[in-house]
Amino acid sequence: MSSIRTLGAATAVLLLASACSGAGGGGGGENSVNVLMVNNPQMQDLQKLTADNFTKETGIKVNFTVLPENDVRDKISQDFSSQAGQYDVATISNYETPMYAKNGWLAPMDDFVSKDSGFDQADILEPIKQSLTAADGKVYAQPFYGESSFLMYRKDIFAEKGVTLPDKPTWQQVAEAAAKVSTPEVRGICLRGQPGWGQVMAPLTTVVNTFGGTWFTKDWQAQVNAPEFKEATKFYVDLVRTHGENGAPQAGFAECLNNMTQGKVAMWYDATVAAGLLEAADSPVKGKLGFTQAPVVKTDSSGWLYTWAFGIQKASKKQDNAWKFISWASGKGYEELAGKTLGWSKVPDGKRSSTYQRAEYKQSSGTFSAMAEAAIKSAKPLNPGVQERPAPGIQFVGIPEFTDLGTQVSQQISSAIAGATSVDDALNNGQGLAEKVAAKYKGQ
């Protein structure tokens, strides 16, 4: 989802012109594999390193087709749903994986894993592994990188104002801090307000979860205008309208990153991957940041969970080659290669416990790596709230209809942030949409 969409969302426009497309046809020779991949920076790094390393070691030629996020999602859906077999491997997320597996579009990986002692499946962070496991208990994708969400704040501004935050704040404490540090020039907090199921709805749904709300009950009762959902949404909208960034109804990941980098906001709640960008060598705020776990109310944790991962099309006739590529790209050896070749800040992190033990990685990631690891480890993709859910997902509901439902509701929420409608009206409209979706699942 550019959803969280972290780096993918932030850079999709910038990378559109430079996206590199390779041959993606079903041929390519016997000793080859066809990979359909999103064009974010980490994936482009992978593409650059493949020929001189993976192909040189294995003799397997990798034919890449690399596209912007929305385009690649459409193409993957078309090819995998028809089981055309044009692509052997594709980048999918933990949103698609369980659904694709249920539809019979993916090859299970358990047999490959059991025969590949060097891959070390036990090293994959448990919530990431869980999110790529289908209802049948089998693993259907391997992560390339992962993320959760946490709160980032300017230590210098907080110190100047005499404000402190605990390592695990409540949302009420965050709102109080935002009020104390906010000025016309430097707003208290940046929260996504841009329409999109992976834009405003990603952070907002984590707030809904910890306030005790949910999109649907276990038996598919829509809850979008229920008291808990409404309380969380009003809190979020009021906070961003009162102490949030300028232009909040149009602000997504990229805009909040800009605001934080340029010193226009004192706090930002968003993807853990943002920390690496803020702590980059050329960042004006490098060394000025503090980090806390995602704020909570009624739950022990509230951070989201997202991963870009590699899945094998069930119709692929080159599944052995496909696994060899995935084992290399998702393995410890690739991380070491990327770290030594490109720099440790370029390592696709967020998926392996061993990454966070590397001295080189710790040195390059500064103060945020331990907090990011803790955020991912505490994520609960199957149980993110106070009640049981009918489908997996923290910042989304793991059903195909959520892309449309989440987008339509997000438009209403953005309108409320802009002051063009009330939260009550926005959620009453959303409830009607959610009830139509729920009707499809009741009694199944």
TrEMBL record:
Keywords associated with the record: Signal
Organism domain of life: Bacteria
Leader sequence segment: 1-23
PANTHER family associated with the record: ARABINOSE-BINDING PROTEIN-RELATED (PTHR43649), DIACETYLCHITOBIOSE BINDING PROTEIN DASA (PTHR43649:SF12)
Protein name: Carbohydrate ABC transporter substrate-binding protein, CUT1 family (TC 3.A.1.1.-)
Organism: Lentzea albida
Lineage, top ranks: Bacteria, Bacillati, Actinomycetota, Actinomycetes, Pseudonocardiales
